[in-house]
Amino acid sequence: MIQDIFPRKLDNQYKHVKPCAGSNLLVFNQKGAMLSRVEDGRILFPVLAEGEEYDLVYLFSLDDAAYFLVRDEYEKDGYEYRTIRELRDEATGAEVFAAFTAYHLWRWYEDNRFCGRCGGVLKDHSVERAR
Hints:
Blueprint: E1 10-11, E2 24-26, E3 34-39, E4 42-44, E5 56-62, E6 65-70, E7 80-82, H1 84-90, H2 94-111
Parallel strand pairs: 2-6
Antiparallel strand pairs: 1-5, 3-4, 3-7, 5-6
């Protein structure tokens, strides 16, 4: 629950933010498993390296750290795909809440790719989280 991450603050309002080196990358496979690793009960996400460029969309911030959904193919040594349930069982803390929030937003982006009337491909809105 959101109160469990206090005093940290999650802000899931959409912002047109550009990623920078060190931004957290949230990567899902087709089954909804998340690329991550767990150390000492904490989830670690891959981070954007200097000079890397991917198709990214801003999801949220946790305190001052921005989290971006990677829409390209992405792999990183030392990280593996885990289901949300596995992450919940292996880790604690605000990062678990971040993982669940990211999963729900990823699912929304996946489920809303096409127009329900004409079947055309939807495009991201530039000002709000809408298609």
